[in-house]
Design a protein that fits this description.
Strand 13 (265-272) and strand 14 (278-285) form a beta hairpin. Helix content is 11%, strand content 31%. The chain has 4 helices and 16 strands. By secondary structure, the chain is mainly beta.
């Protein structure tokens, strides 16, 4: 079964060219897992395989409820066998740290909010460290900091840089946060934030297609639901890129023209488009993306148009 992104219903506007630069990412925070059992503990809690990950490597991961619903998502960086950093949406950090702490029990791991120890930057093009591998989620040491290659967006190469709090800022042209947010949305990868807490299983945000789920690792909360969603033969909801002239908000419903009473999707991430209008990642029913019209907020709301995803989707099995 091929679930590749449908053709856009209108011709996409020409993409503006993003200038190289660096943007301070104030909306993100960092959880640190430190101790002999750090990787083993996270192995039993998240969708990613942190035991097999080598020091210096990074991966996308999700933290799910017992029902497989995403409570948080992370870019996890393994600094050493006993030291892992989890970069996540700051508005969910406190509650995620508290919930993870409930399961430490006798494990030799200490969890802490390490946000104050780091500067988090998004960088593009020439500002991307040269020693990063070309594949998304590859990690590297950069001076006293760390870097992770992100998925490209609109043809722009990108990376996350983690610098010590007292380090000098990247020597690159400052980038407006709205431009970085637009690149994040155009990458097609949404991080879980407070408005969509427990709204999606990982496949509803295409995490299995962008390296966010390992189906070979051991148990974690919600694993049975996540695995069943992948292996039962059909995935009914996926994440799609969309555009709208009207403002959109994370958590907002999307409706299909065939059903005025029941939403077919939810806005997972949104940004202002440099050329005007708004772009969003919308998690919705695959059937709703195939034909008909999509409307924001209600059946007679503003019209949404679909854009091609920048990466291929894995077939469900």
């Amino acid at each position: 079964m091929n679930l590749s992104s449908p053709e856009p219903r209108v011709r996409p506007r020409p993409e503006p060219v993003a200038v190289p630069g660096a943007c301070r990412l104030q909306h993100l925070g960092v959880i640190r897992a430190q101790g002999p059992d750090a990787a083993k503990f996270l192995q039993g809690q998240l969708t990613q395989d942190f035991v097999l990950l080598r020091p210096g490597q990074a991966r996308l991961a999700a933290y799910c409820s017992a029902k497989g619903r995403m409570q948080a998502s992370f870019i996890g960086v393994k600094r050493a066998e006993d030291d892992v950093l989890l970069v996540m949406s700051a508005d969910l950090l406190a509650q995620t740290l508290k919930r993870l702490g409930m399961f430490v029990l006798r494990a030799q791991v200490r969890l802490s909010d390490d946000t104050a120890a780091w500067q988090l930057w998004g960088v593009t093009e020439q500002a991307v460290p040269e020693n990063l591998d070309g594949l998304p989620w590859s990690g590297a040491t950069v001076g006293s900091g760390l870097a992770v290659r992100l998925y490209p967006a609109a043809g722009v190469q990108r990376a996350l840089m983690m610098l010590p709090a007292d380090a000098a800022a990247p020597s690159a042209t400052p980038m407006d946060s709205e431009l970085w947010d637009w690149l994040e949305v155009r990458s097609g990868i949404a991080m879980v934030s407070a408005p969509v807490f427990e709204a999606f299983v990982p496949q509803m945000l295409n995490y299995e297609s962008v390296g966010g789920v390992s189906f070979k690792k051991g148990c974690y909360p919600g694993q049975e639901v996540v695995a069943r969603s992948q292996f039962r033969g059909t995935l009914k909801r996926r994440a799609f890129l969309s555009r709208c002239d009207a403002p959109m908000t994370v958590g907002q419903d999307v409706f299909h023209s065939s059903d005025a009473g029941q939403p077919c999707g939810t806005v997972a991430a949104v940004a202002t488009e440099p050329g005007g209008g708004f772009v969003a990642i919308v998690s919705m029913q695959v059937s709703a993306a195939s034909d008909g019209q999509l409307h924001l907020g209600s059946a007679d709301g503003s019209l949404l148009t679909l854009l091609p995803l920048p990466y291929p989707l894995l077939d469900d099995i």
